[in-house]
Amino acid sequence: MTFVTWNEKLLTGIREIDHDHKMLFDLIEQFHEAYMSTDSKAAMEPAFRMLMDYTENHFRREEELLEKVGYPGQAGHHQDHEDLKDEVLALYQRFQNDKLQGVENDLGLELLSFLKNWLEFHILEDDMKYVEFIRDKEKH
Amino acid sequence: MSPEDFSFVADFLKKKSGISLTDDKTYLVESRLLPLARQHDLDDITGLVAAMKGGRGSLGDHESLMDDVLDAMTTNETFFFRDNKPFDAIRKDILPQLIERRKSAKSLRIWCAAASTGQEPYSIAMLLKEYGAQLNDWRLSILGTDVSGEALKRAEAGNYSQFEVQRGLPAQLLIKYLHKEEKYWMINSELKSMIRYKKLNLLSSFESLGKFDIVFCRNVLIYFEVETKRQILERISRQMPPDGILVLGSAETVLNVSDHFQLIPGLSGFYKINPAMS
Predict the structure, then answer these.
(1) Is the ipTM of this structure higher than 0.85?
(2) Which CATH fold would you assign to the domain A8-139?
(3) CA of B8 vs chain A CAs: smallest distance (Å)
(4) Cα–Cα distance between B167 and B165 in angstroms, integer?
């Protein structure tokens, strides 16, 4: 049983973006696996760092694409990415600072659920808008 | 990652574990091996694959790197009493008949062919213990095998976090068969003594294992191609007496895969040996 998996509903049709999204889902999954299998917050750190670094790279690739195609909503999209990073780091910090360790700490699950929900919502609502824009542009 | 690197990893995985990876799983190889590359101070997957090929001597033990790759690519997450139905069916439908047939030998052997981190074999051991006085003077033995050495280490240790024991394990069984040491729940030695663990690849020979009255092989055959599945099922059937029982995952089937087993009517996931093939 997995915590989170990519599904066809999230398909953008842009190969590099879909690849990144699938990667991000599996990196969240691995963070969840780490959260469940250890009581040591330090042992979870590599999985979290990996996820955040890949997220950063994905955002950069996506924003470069949006600039290239002249997407009018690019600034807002960039802001959404910045807000996500801030919010995740704040939640992670709260989790790290809390005296409860690992899986006994509900903040870990809160963070994981936030990541999962944010990613799904962001792809379905925000990413699909620029996908539509790119498709329209290609038609003309 | 490059198609060549993907092919190399896919071939390695196929050879070592029998698991087939199609091209659409490139992301999975990347997401599982990127953290491993980091752990080994390598820049990227290209570096990791080069190290797998033996291109970099400074990594030290090449074999342990290959084991790490195998572990990273095989998922080990399981639950206690994962999917309650098969355990209920064992209790209500399978055990009463088996006990009747084995009442003179007073012995039951069970094999968990994808034991992973031990939750399934421990769940079966608890089920047998809870079955009642009828089994008190029986020899009950469970063999847990898995391809992942890391998973088996955890299974043998029998230590689980609060979160892990919360999933599927009823509180009365938790208190009865596990005890808490600091933050971990440890399986009691009495339960542990019923189970032996052994690293085993489903592609290798089972002949030395002996015969089993019940074989659990849940949610693992999905990773194999049809022909490999057929061969594994046939070899499993040879490790079972004519009245042995095979338990597969509820979403799995032997239909169009193997003639060696027949579905037991009304018991989803439970198979008996096909007498025509034995």
Answers:
(1) no
(2) Four Helix Bundle (Hemerythrin (Met), subunit A) (1.20.120)
(3) 20
(4) 5
